[in-house]
Write a structure and sequence with these properties.
Elements: E1 2-6, H1 10-22, E2 26-30, H2 33-42, E3 47-51, H3 59-69, E4 74-79, H4 84-92, E5 97-100, H5 105-119, H6 128-140, H7 151-166, E6 170-173, H8 180-189, E7 198-202, H9 208-216, E8 217-218, E9 221-222, H10 224-227, E10 232-236, H11 243-255, E11 257-258, E12 267-268, E13 272-277, H12 281-286, H13 292-298, E14 301-304, H14 315-326, H15 336-344, H16 350-364, H17 396-414, H18 419-425, H19 430-440
Parallel strand pairs: 1-2, 1-3, 3-4, 4-5, 6-13, 6-14, 7-10, 10-13
Antiparallel strand pairs: 8-9, 11-12
Helix pairs in contact: 4-8, 7-8, 14-16, 17-18, 18-19
């Protein structure tokens, strides 16, 4: 297998070259995409391993050029700036997989070995269709956590091209962990502003002075409204902006300019705002907690991302997607019973929580199928329900039994499955707690 490594970091580039050669790979390592493109014109390579952040040409632009001219090449990207957004962008434009820096050469070698196994004895060039089919699957499902076949998600998929081209401000509502930031970045990447800055600001937990500095800057630094001009400004949790600053933000958006003390004239800005909110801003504007005019400025196109518990049919697809991402060094499957257990869980942390537990299950897996027994106990227990308004239980004994089960479940989640601590939390003897837990979940092994 012939491999081309492109990385401007000399030590990492040379280390990868030497380690891959020792493992039997035919490797050339160069420091820039421009040199890489020249080499690709001269001879054929099976795999390209490239950094994303490089001078003169960004790795994404390099990736797009390579996949356009040499579609048979399998591309693996590596970046110290790995995040959902950069990984999504790389997968979107044809990357096979990605690696977060720092990583050992063994990780890349294992990924290359997996590619060999997938191809069998067939030359890589002749089997590239399977790789590209995988890339298309990533692309058709909106690249990462915005994956699903549910009607709610499919409706969002259908709207994205129109919303992206409209260039109007967008408000995304939804709980934490549903993928609002990813949806915002996807809209930007499909818009006419995709080659311009994409700047993010999370207002949650920031006081008025911090929000003021982040949005508007001062004499020593530019604010994010100015940094994102011609592009997109993503404001997460816009509902938490102090009302004292809402009028200042409204004035900037209405006037399309910023007043800066060091400048004689206001600075013109042209920015698209994509915001998120966990609160109903319409209700907050009616109660005087959010400026009504600012609400209308930001809420031109409203979107709602449903919580995972409202689209449980998407959970199996997400599970397999995350397994594929996190098991890059070896193929891992999950048994149907384990999928059933995870599907029945309510996922208060939404997709982010699901991604986290799948990464954990894959990390501790020993190359076998993931079973229901491996899933932490807190994911097998029922979540708290409220019976105040519409009680579904009809007898005192049923109510007591359900309340007992929910208290046990709460204690187990609170202590992350530690039965001794959970018993102490409920002021119960450990033996009594174990008996009660066993009564509600007979199939769980209770040994610490």
């Amino acid at each position: 297998m012939k491999v081309l490594v492109v990385d401007d970091e000399k030590l990492k580039r040379m280390t990868l070259r030497d380690d891959l050669r020792e493992s039997g790979y035919d490797v050339i390592a160069v420091e820039s995409p421009l040199i890489g493109l020249q080499l690709l014109q001269q001879e054929a390579y099976d795999v390209l391993v490239t950094d994303l952040r490089m001078p003169k040409m960004h790795g994404i632009d390099f990736l797009k050029n390579v996949k356009k001219e040499y579609p048979h090449i399998t591309v693996i990207v590596m970046t110290a700036y790995a995040s959902v957004e950069t990984a999504v962008e790389a997968l979107r434009f044809g990357a096979y997989n990605y690696i977060k820096k720092p990583f050992s050469s063994d990780v890349l070698i294992a990924m290359l070995e997996k590619l060999k196994a997938l191809k069998g004895k067939t030359p890589l060039e002749k089997t590239s269709s399977s790789v590209e089919a995988s890339v298309r699957n990533h692309e058709s499902s909106l690249y990462h956590t915005l994956i699903g076949k549910s009607q709610q998600i499919q409706e969002i998929f259908d709207q994205i091209p129109k919303i992206a081209s409209a260039d109007s401000n967008v408000m995304i509502y939804g709980e934490e962990g549903t993928g609002k930031s990813l949806l915002a970045k996807t809209i930007h990447l499909q818009s006419s502003r995709k080659h311009e800055p994409y700047v993010s600001l999370n207002c949650y937990g920031l006081n008025a002075d911090a929000v003021d500095l982040e949005l508007f800057g001062d004499d020593s630094r530019q604010g994010k409204l100015q940094l994102s001009t011609d592009g997109t400004l993503f404001i997460a949790n816009v509902d938490t902006i102090p009302i004292s600053l809402q009028a200042k933000l409204l004035a900037a958006l209405e006037n399309l300019s910023l007043a800066v003390q060091s400048e004689e004239e206001p600075i013109a800005i042209d920015v698209r705002i994509i915001s998120t909110s966990r609160e109903n801003l319409r209700e907050r504007s009616r109660s005087g907690e959010f400026l009504e005019d600012l609400y209308y400025q930001l809420n031109v196109i409203p979107l709602y991302l449903p919580p995972l518990r409202e689209r449980k049919g998407d959970i199996p697809m997400l599970i397999n997607h995350f397994i594929d991402i996190f098991s890059s060094t070896q193929p891992i499957r999950i048994q149907p019973e384990a999928v059933r257990v995870l599907t029945e869980y309510s996922w208060p942390g939404n997709v982010s929580e699901l991604e986290n537990i799948i990464e954990r299950l894959v990390a501790v897996n020993k190359g076998t199928d993931i079973t229901a027994e491996e899933i932490p106990i807190e994911y097998k227990l029922p979540t708290s329900q409220k019976f105040d308004d519409t009680p579904s239980l009809t007898s005192f004994h049923e109510i007591i039994k359900t309340t007992e089960r929910e208290l046990i479940a709460w204690a187990m989640r609170k202590t992350k499955g530690n039965k001794t601590q959970a018993a102490r939390l409920l002021s119960m003897k450990p033996s009594t707690f174990r008996d009660t837990l066993a009564k509600h979940i007979q199939h769980i092994v209770l040994d610490d």
